[in-house]
Design brief:
The complex is a heterodimer of chains A (251) and B (684).
Chain A (H helix, E strand, L loop, with lengths): L1 E13 L6 E13 L3 E6 L5 H8 L7 E6 L2 E2 L8 H8 E4 L11 H11 L4 H15 L14 H13 L5 E5 L7 H16 L4 E5 L2 H4 L4 E6 L2 E7 L5 H16 L3
Parallel strand pairs in A: 3-8, 3-9, 6-7, 7-8
Antiparallel strand pairs in A: 1-2, 1-4, 4-5, 9-10
Helix pairs in contact in A: 3-5, 4-5, 5-6
Chain B lengths: L2 H14 L1 H26 L1 H7 L3 H41 L4 H41 L13 H27 L3 H6 L12 H20 L3 H36 L1 H4 L5 H40 L1 H8 L4 E6 L11 H15 L3 E17 L2 E3 L12 E8 H6 L19 E8 L11 E4 L2 E8 L14 E7 L2 H15 L6 E9 L2 H7 L1 H14 L5 E6 H55 L3 H40 L5 H34 L1
Parallel strand pairs in B: 3-6, 4-8, 5-7
Antiparallel strand pairs in B: 1-9, 1-10, 2-3, 2-4, 2-9, 5-8, 6-7
């Protein structure tokens, strides 16, 4: 089943003084099946952040459409966007973006609280999410008291607690050491194995090699894509590296 | 690099940071203008002459000093705040290769620009508002035809300039030191060190509750004005300490209790606000407590000065049933040889004729005023007792029934005094003012020294001017005749010896046209004095007390109080506002990230606005509410203190306090709306 369909997405930025126009996205088309684990790779300035912002309903495209589980994002009213994000999407950011004033537990619960869930339901879901991510012992700590890897796993717990249709991750390993990165990526793989659809934007070949499919974006278009097929992570890693080399050297 | 380079950077910086600099400049300009106005009022000879007193310049001088002190604190506070906000910017300059001394140079030019603009605006404001202020003062002091005027002289401009340039220099030096200490790496690393969740500090909480309770208790239970003077500062101190402690510990206690209630806490409306406040209060408790105390000060200052001034007329009417009182002794030493009443009458009549004012009637009063301790309906001479409380001291004014009959007093109060028909062991009793909470009690008899007298009648009004400061209780007693009076005289003479009271012959004069004689004013008094001295060239002591001169003195004092109260109140109010504004801005920058994250996670914009709103409202109005409660509890003790300043009109004080609170709350709310907008713009 197709959960996300992006069709001919274009985004043009106009500088404030009305001068030069920059085309960040020049017609991006792809789709994601339910339960898929997709990585999007591209260099800085390739347009992947713009794409992510549009997918997250934080920004609007100039033209083209994004359909999530049958709902057209452009049809969602400005006032309903926050609720839409909360109900359908989960986010993991490079800088974790946990709130200093909340304990890990409260950080994880925040989306549910915003969705006005009952205390019983929240506690049940919190327990299972924390269990899945191995952060049960640190629930009562504050973000400044735990390691980067733990923070990122807490952020992941916050992202999945609402059981979103799509988990969006923006360079989730960007601020982590290799050990924590590996842990987080295996968490993502487990979540994916459990049926969670994941869309991850990354620079890291290692991170991307865990995905089932890798999209390469260059100059605002989907330039290439790689399917894992039956290959192991190492095989995938090599394929991605080769593709990147090819892209860089201009094939 | 040329000088122009630094001035240009500095000018650009001031412009770019207008959100920080504009309030700083306006604040300094306002402080300068207030300082200038008070200083000039103190020095302006024309005003002094017009008002004709020495109290005004002295009080204005004190006011100048207070404003100077406030300015020092505020300017340093604002500058330290500016430095904190801009450390990153200066750190960046440093990293980009500007040496610290160059940055100090930039700071110097920034300070110079800000200082020059502030003082320039301040001078203009000060001069403009000086005219208004002098007009207002003449109005308040009801000093006839003095026009408001501009007053220009070099010292009144130069001295304030010197002071404020000095203050700005001090602030600059403090800033320069903080730049020299700057470690740019720390600033640029941008590491957000998390803050620990505040713990509930039980010791502080308990101490705070006790201290505040004690302060309130003193105010609620204080018995006499005399005790009130001593206890007032203790109470103020206790309340201040209590406020600080409770803000620091109580806020954490309440918020943590709220947090423990899951049903309440896990609500989109409450969760961000409660946890935000918990951390916010840790940093801001002291600041907010200061605001609460400043606000209380403003309220108390304004309500007391306004009601004192507003109550002047009442006070004078109670204290002066007649317009002139005169008594005199030929020999100063033992005050036994009284100037005959006929002489006094003659002198006053002559003077009146000379001044062209008509006397309606003259009463003569034979008085004996004795100090006692009032205890259980017994009037005891102080030597009979050891160990006494201040509120027991009671001055008794004795007159005979004969005197009482002859005094017609103020027509509106008693037109025809009836005969009391007192027997030897009977008296008529009147509480003129009381320092004890015994206003309602009506004893059946009173024991004076050892003799008991039945109270035949409780008088509501005593026709003799009490003219006491209001520190002690005053009782009026009418006895049947001179024999009884002499008995009482002898008894106290034996007890007090050379400190005993003596009889006084006093005349009380009621003029036909009070306004006419008031406009003659001091001339009348001087003429009477001259005539007295002419008649008794060998020397005499006299006591001349006129309503018009008293009124003038009281008006000068209370009018000046009022002016100072309003000006200082306004300055404190704006200081409060300034502190809040800067707090709001700095927090806005800190909160920005929090709210951005919450929005990304799916918090609606409406909810963000609401959360910001409830957090702001709490922070803003907590001090205001505290100030309101403090003022309410300060009421009883303030009333006692005001009584000492001869204000007894409780209703007036209540109205003034409520009005002051209403105005304060209004201004406060307006500022809230303004800063909330700025805050929201920053956060958004």
């Amino acid at each position: 089943m197709e959960i996300l369909k992006v069709t001919d997405l274009k985004k043009t930025y106009t500088s404030r003084l009305g001068g030069a126009q920059v085309q960040a996205l020049k017609g991006v088309t792809f789709s994601v099946e339910s339960g898929e684990y997709v990585a999007i790779m591209g260099e800085s300035g390739s347009g992947k952040t713009t794409l992510l912002n549009i997918l997250a309903a934080l920004d609007k495209p100039t033209s083209g459409s994004v359909v999530l589980d049958g709902m057209d994002l452009s049809a969602v009213k400005e006032s309903a966007r926050a609720a839409f994000r909360r109900r359908n999407l989960g986010f993991v950011f490079q800088e974790f973006d946990l709130l200093d004033t909340f304990s890990i537990m409260d950080n994880i619960l925040l989306p549910m609280v915003l969705g006005r869930a009952g205390v019983k339901e929240m506690e049940a879901k919190l327990a299972s999410a924390a269990e899945a991510l191995g952060i049960t012992p640190i629930l009562n700590k504050y973000p400044y008291e735990v390691s980067g890897g733990q923070k990122q796993r807490a952020a992941a717990a916050r992202a999945i607690i609402t059981e979103p249709k799509l988990l969006l991750a923006d360079e989730p390993t960007g601020a982590l050491d290799s050990q924590s990165s590996a842990e987080l990526l295996s968490v993502f793989s487990r979540l994916n194995a459990g049926g969670q659809t994941i869309l991850m934007v990354t620079h890291s070949v290692d991170a991307a090699s865990h995905a089932g499919r890798v999209l390469f974006i260059r100059d605002g278009v989907v330039f290439h894509q790689l399917y894992r097929g039956g290959s192991a992570n190492e095989e995938m890693y090599r394929k991605i590296s080769d593709t990147l080399t090819m892209l860089r050297t201009g094939r | 690099m040329s000088k122009g380079f630094y001035t240009k950077i500095a000018a650009d910086n001031v412009k770019k940071n207008y959100r920080l600099y504009v309030p700083r400049i306006l604040a300094e300009a306002g402080l300068f203008a207030s300082f200038y106005i008070l200083f000039t009022l103190a020095l302006d000879k024309r005003l002094g002459e017009a008002v004709g007193g020495s109290v005004l310049p002295t009080l204005m001088g004190m006011g100048t000093f207070i404003i100077g002190f406030l300015s020092l604190i505020l300017i340093l506070y604002v500058n330290s705040f500016l430095m904190k906000q801009r450390k990153r910017e200066y750190g960046l300059y440093n990293v980009l290769g500007m040496e610290k001394r160059h940055i100090v140079k930039v700071l110097f030019f920034e300070s110079l620009i800000a200082s020059a603009v502030s003082i320039a605006i301040g001078v203009v404001f000060g001069m403009l508002f000086y005219k208004l202020s002098s007009l207002l003062i003449c109005r308040l002091l009801r000093s006839g035809a003095v026009p408001g005027f501009y007053y220009l002289s070099a010292p009144t401009v130069l001295f304030p300039m010197l002071v404020f340039v000095g203050l700005d220099l001090l602030a600059f030096l403090a800033g320069a030191v903080s730049i020299l200490r700057l470690k740019p790496v720390e600033l640029l690393s941008g590491a957000r060190t998390g803050e620990k969740e505040p713990r509930t500090r039980w010791a502080l909480l308990v101490l705070g509750v006790l201290s505040l309770g004690a302060g309130y208790y003193i105010s609620l239970t204080v018995k006499s004005p005399l005790a009130a003077i001593f206890l007032f500062f203790a109470a103020v101190l206790l309340v201040m300490v209590g406020t600080y402690f409770l803000y620091v510990s109580g806020s954490a206690f309440v918020l943590k209790t709220l947090k423990k209630n899951k049903r309440f806490y896990y609500d989109p409306k409450h969760m961000p606000a409660v946890s935000g406040l918990l951390f916010r209060m840790k940093k801001n408790a002291v600041g907010l407590a200061s605001i609460a105390i400043l606000a209380t000060g403003v309220l108390v200052m304004i309500s007391t000065t306004v009601s004192l001034y507003g109550g002047v007329k009442d006070t004078m009417e109670t204290n002066y049933p007649q317009q002139l009182y005169l008594s005199a002794f030929i020999n100063d030493k033992d005050r036994t040889q009284r100037v005959p009443v006929e002489d006094l009458k003659a002198i006053v009549s002559e003077t009146a004729a000379q001044m062209g004012v008509e006397i309606d009637h003259v009463d003569s009063e034979k008085l004996l005023i004795v100090s006692y301790l009032m205890r259980d309906n017994r009037l005891l001479t102080m030597k009979e007792t050891d160990g006494w409380k201040a509120e027991e001291i009671t001055n008794v004014i004795y007159i005979t029934e004969d005197t009482y009959k002859n005094i017609r007093g103020v027509a509106s109060v008693i037109s025809e005094p009836k005969g009391l028909g007192l027997k030897k062991d009977e008296i008529a009793f009147c509480r003129i003012s009381t320092m004890m909470n015994d206003v309602g009690s009506q004893p059946g008899s009173i024991t004076i020294n050892t003799r008991e007298y039945r109270i035949k009648e409780h008088l509501a009004y005593f026709p003799i001017a009490s003219n006491t400061s209001g520190i002690v209780s005053v009782v009026g007693i009418v006895v049947s005749d001179d024999d009884v009076l002499n008995d009482i005289y002898t008894a106290q003479k034996e007890a007090y010896g050379e400190h005993a009271s003596e009889f006084a012959d006093r005349i009380g004069v009621t003029f036909a046209d009070e306004a006419a004689v008031s406009s003659v004013g001091a001339d009348f008094n001087n003429t009477v004095a001259e005539k007295l001295k002419a008649r008794y060239p060998d020397g005499l002591s006299y006591d001349l007390d006129t309503k018009w001169e008293s009124l003038k003195n009281v008006l000068e004092l209370y009018g000046t109080f009022l002016f100072l109260g309003m000006l200082l109140g306004a300055v404190c109010l704006f200081a409060t506002i300034l502190i809040i504004y800067y707090k709001q801005i700095s927090e806005g920058y800190e909160d920005r990230r929090r709210f951005q994250i919450m929005q990304k996670i799916g918090m609606e914009e409406k909810a963000v606005k609401r959360t910001i709103g409830s957090q702001l409202v709490m922070q803003f109005f907590l001090p205001l509410i505290t100030a309101g409660i403090h003022t309410a509890f300060a009421f009883p003790i303030l009333l006692k203190l005001l009584k000492m300043l001869m204000l007894t009109n409780t209703a007036l004080f209540v109205v003034c306090s409520l009005a002051a609170f209403a105005v304060f709350a209004l201004v406060y709310a307006a500022v809230y709306l303004l800063t909330a907008r700025t805050y929201y713009r920053i956060v958004h």
